[in-house]
Design a protein that fits this description.
The longest helix is centred in the middle third of the chain and has 12 residues. Strand 6 and strand 7 form a beta hairpin. The strands form three sheets. The chain has a four-stranded mixed beta sheet with strand order 3-1-2-10, covered by helices on one side. The protein is globular. The protein is of the alpha+beta class and about 260 residues long. Helix content is about 15%, strand content about 20%. It has a domain of about 130 residues: Dipeptide-binding Protein, domain 1 (Alpha-Beta Complex).
Amino acid sequence: MKRYSIVKGLALLISLTMILAACSTADAEPDPEPSATTTAPADEPTATTAAPAPADTAAPVEEGPRILNVVIPTDPVAMNPFPETAGNRATVHVAMYLPLIDVDNNQAIHSEILESWDVSSDATTITLKVRDGIEWSDGVAVTSADVSLALRLHLDSRISTRAGRLGGVSGVQAYTDGEADSISGITTPDDSTVVITLDLPDAAWLPNWASLTRLNSMWPAHILGDVPALDIPEHEFFETFPVVNGAYKFVQYVPDQ
């Protein structure tokens, strides 16, 4: 499973079998008084393991996790992803939450959450299929409800500065104007399927969405699904991040160290 590692990102608590490959961020210039966040391995992360050393030279394996501290050059405004996930806090989020969809090193669309993504011949309907076997750290399965929630929040211009980048989904205006309780262009026929309907043909919609890798974090619908959109920016979930689906879980944020 693809994992994100941060050189200028956050303090991580990692297991001995976890290897972090260097990946730089360019969101901020170095600061002489950095801040730090700490995350820890999720309950059952998928990890990249190093090749075992020869039996006669292998060192004893220590029990428990080790702490790796990596600093954030400047303080984020807040850890809540709304209204904005860019900058240092996005660096933290991608360590804890798998993006819904992104592009790989060859610029091809890629997803650890989705099994498939199909665009209709008239480029007005996008059908997403959620991969089986992915769970949140509390054991609840990741389903189409989680994907739908992430899309609804990212498309809501009242709380999201990314809404304009993903425009064109049917029913968004009626939803944000308070004329509808949901976005008509986002439906979930079953637990593994999400259907996105666009107002006009747009063959670039899916690639554009995938290109927003760090802005594509998803959130647990079984915890946040019933929270009114306008309450999301101040919700306590984003103070402790108690449930994740990525490699790490949140431990501590220490500003102004």
